[in-house]
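> Could you send the Aminotransferase class I/II-fold pyridoxal phosphate-dependent enzyme prediction when you get a chance?

Sure thing. Input:
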Amino acid sequence: MAKIKHHNFLNTVHEVFSDAKEAGVLHLYAGGSSFSGRKIRVGGKEMYHFGTTGYLGLEQDFRLKEAAKEAIDKYGTQFPLSKSYISNPLYEELESHLMNMYGYPIVITKNSTLGHLGVIPSAVEDNDVIVLDHQVHWSVQNAAKMLKTRSVPIEMIRHNSLEMLEDKINKYRDSKRNIWYMADGIYSMYGDYAPIKALMELSKKYPQLHFYFDDVHGMSWVGKNGTGYVMDQLGDLPENVLLFGTLSKTFGASGAVLACSNSVMYDKIKTFGGPLTFSAQLEPASVAAATASAQIHLSREIYELQNELRNRVDYFNASLEQTELPLIDQNASPVFYIGTGMPKTGYNFVNRLMGEGFYVNLGIFPAVPVKNTGVRITISRHNEKEEIKALVDAMVYHFPKALEETRTNAQRVFHAFKLQPKMEEEPKSWDGLSLETKKSINEVDREEWNRYLGGKGVYDWEGLKFLESVFRKNSKKEHNWAFRYVTIRDGDGQPVLMTFLSVSLWKDDMLALSDVSRSIEEERKSDPYHLSSIVVSMGSLFTEGDHAYWDKSHPMGERAMNLFLEVMEQQERELGAKMTVLRDFPKASKWNNQLQGHGFLRVQMPDSCTVDLKGAPSIEVYINGLSSRNRRHFRKDIQPYMGLVHCTVVSKLTVAQLEQASKLFGAVQSNNLGLNTYSFPNVLFDRMNRSPLWEFIMLYPKDEPDTIAGIMFCYTNMEKVYVPAFVGMDYGALEQYAIYRQLLYRTIERGITLDIPKIDFGMTASFEKRKLGAVIQEKYAYIQTTDNFILELLGVMEGQQ
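Output:
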């Protein structure tokens, strides 16, 4: 029944990237006829390069370049044969050098992405389990997901959470052979580390624990022979560790390298490893350049290069310590991240720094949460101390200006990253605007509320008073909601923006695929609050429709929007919410540009359905006005069943009817995993029954006059909109009596009888509603999360059931 058009992750990424591209900070082209590494030309301007991943600058070393040119002269631009047949003449020397570097057998791959695709399916057995750190590189996650087809469970834990990892170990230790934890050595955005030594201690406690480390960002600039951060922490490579390094990035050439001390596993991977077997091998120039780099790594020179870089990194750290910039993680890696919070602040800051002659990278979703946008700065040996100092000075000058220009402040940035603000700021002035935030609709003027937000759904003044009575003072926490009524006025006291918020417990999988929710519901049998979060939402889980009035054309319309978003952020912090949701907007919403720049992701909701009853004096006239195809649907799929049931509309149910209605609604809610929410409190139906705003359309089988087969719970909003808010059905009789289709038809019939011009049929089941003349509109929500963990976890779970 109520299937959802699920949000397409790639479409969301496309929107975010397109926004950044339009701002001029992504998908740029370097110019110039040559490249030194110290500077880069962008948009016709020379800039100091603080965006490289070649931290030691070896890509510009003359020895690597000469070796590459000589290899092309001798062997051509490529060696077009699979390495399984024969390797080009330079491979053997490179493999020998890399084995000397690591002290263990190695496998060379075309790049790390293909390497992961080849190694992970070979190393992980069908009776193993994979646990992913949620910040492990996308290429590792993508390769791991291939094993879903072999029914290998894939779990995910929060970043560097050893407690969660141990929970997963205990979950699988009795049922699985090996438990693979996959993580980065150095994480590419914040430059922070995996807790290698603590993980090794954990593996002593749990011998089943194996590790797969992607250390491409830890390569060369640290460790013996430049073998990277993980090897530096390990000293020796245990047999339960597979380690990926890179021959590109800091190594200065191309390709990737796997080190493995387990001889049996090494032979298995080396002999046949998917893309390792069938993909083209490295070009002669790349092999030669990598060999020249390996020779440097095997000499004392590598430590001199590491020390030169360390001096620059230390200098940058020391310079940043003298500032109030939000450095997200201070450590000894050459990767630094300055938080900006909102994407539009990040765009502004990057453009300002580029305008001053400093090229830096933007950190943006999905690499980081949208509200954790920032500037990633990398330090290399190419950078001199004077330009490092100049960059710091430029950031100190432009950071507050970027905040001011995008109507935010440093405290909001620090809060977004869960950091302690370095200084207290004066409260921001919203000249010309006043803010009112009320906790009850009783504190809000009834006439004004209904003028701007009445006549739509179950959220006119009277409807909200009803909701407050239902979702307060209940025994279960999911049944207790907080409400906030927000009004932003101009200097004349006129509303520029009005809306209401609810704060409640949501299931994290509310919009996930049904199979994912079904799996999670099994966990909730023992832990009812598994994967649930407090959410600050525009509107509520009980309501649907245009929940906000916003006068965008007002001279202070944009300022009012910015103030409203700051209010939501404050509510999120004060109430401990994990997510902020604004809903239900049409695809071409006037809110779109504003919300994307403020760190909200747009996701598709179920379609909204409405029926226009104007000009329909009777149900017969209405049906005759449908298309010929829809009239056939009525004659074939609805009309033949109408004689099998008795339909009645009542404003008050008996005790027995009320009990049946509650059970039928519960059946629908538990069956509808496409929109998975917690149940509503039992008091809801009693309050409905007492309220003059609600009535009930019921279907009885003619041979069972005391048994309700289906019921529609309907609300009348200011005599303007008829809202069939919820449905209850006996699934055992669903097809026998065409219950759902009959209820839709009877609802339209009732709306015409009441002379109400519009029916708001709400979300889901749009296919069935369309066949009875409903107008379908795509609806979207905008979400902002404190981190990406839940989004990525649900993505990992898809396809595992």
